[in-house]
Design brief:
The protein has 190 residues and is mainly beta. β1 and β2 form a beta hairpin. The structure holds dtdp-4-keto-L-rhamnose.
């Protein structure tokens, strides 16, 4: 397991080891003991799986607020996405900053997104599938979304002038400036 830090404390890129042979490869995509050995103690309770047909589909930016904040461990099982996390922790020195990384079936990378971050992604291949573990259950009353194109965040989704495919909910999402994640900054944990 290779673990890389990012400029946003607590946001980590994990790359599990792959054992390749003539058949293909084998990989432990999640192992609680291995992660605990690296100080990652999230207790996951739900796995999600989405498929987006078109290239240029954006899902996000989403988070759940207290008492159902979610840590997410995100990977791409098919195709390729550019995955983005925005620090929305109250009092964080990097609040409002975003970080993005390409996750693909080929590169096997995973993004560990702590509670208090917004999450979203854009697909870079057709029929891309995102698979992710969550540390709390789906709680519609605690769902929050922020515009993917909020000028205060200025996320470069790599779309150029192409309009993304969005859900109706994401079309009408609010601004980052008025979003309260309800998660306080807990100090430099990386
Ligand atoms: C997120 C979620 C949705 N649903 C249902 C509600 C709805 O009818 C349908 C589609 O939901 P959405 O449009 O919210 O799906 P989607 O836009 O893919 O939402 C996801 O986006 C990414 C970026 C995340 O980080 C996730 O936490 C989640 O918010 O699935 C569940 O049953 N359980 C869940 O955990």
């Amino acid at each position: 397991m290779n673990i890389e830090t990012t400029p946003l404390a607590g946001l980590l890129i994990l790359t599990p080891r792959r054992f390749s042979d003539e058949r293909g490869y084998f990989s432990e995509s999640w192992n609680r003991r291995t992660l605990a050995g690296h100080g990652i103690e999230a207790e996951f309770v739900q796995d999600n799986h989405s498929m987006s047909e078109a290239v240029g589909t954006i899902r996000g930016l989403h988070a759940q607020t207290p008492p159902h904040v979610q840590t997410k461990l995100v990977r791409c099982g098919r195709g390729c996405v550019f995955d983005v996390a925005v620090d929305a922790r109250t009092g964080s020195p990097t609040r409002g900053q975003w970080f993005g990384v390409e996750l693909s079936a080929e590169n096997g990378r995973q993004l560990l997104i702590p509670g208090g971050f917004l999450h979203g992604f854009v697909t870079r291949a057709p029929h891309s599938e995102l698979i992710y573990k969550c540390s709390d259950f789906y709680a519609p009353d605690c769902e929050a979304s922020v515009r993917f194109d909020d000028p205060d965040l200025a996320i470069d989704w790599g779309l150029g002038n192409t309009s993304p495919v969005l859900s109706a909910k994401d079309e009408t999402a609010g601004r980052f400036a008025t979003f309260d994640s309800g998660v306080p900054w807990a100090g430099d944990v990386s």
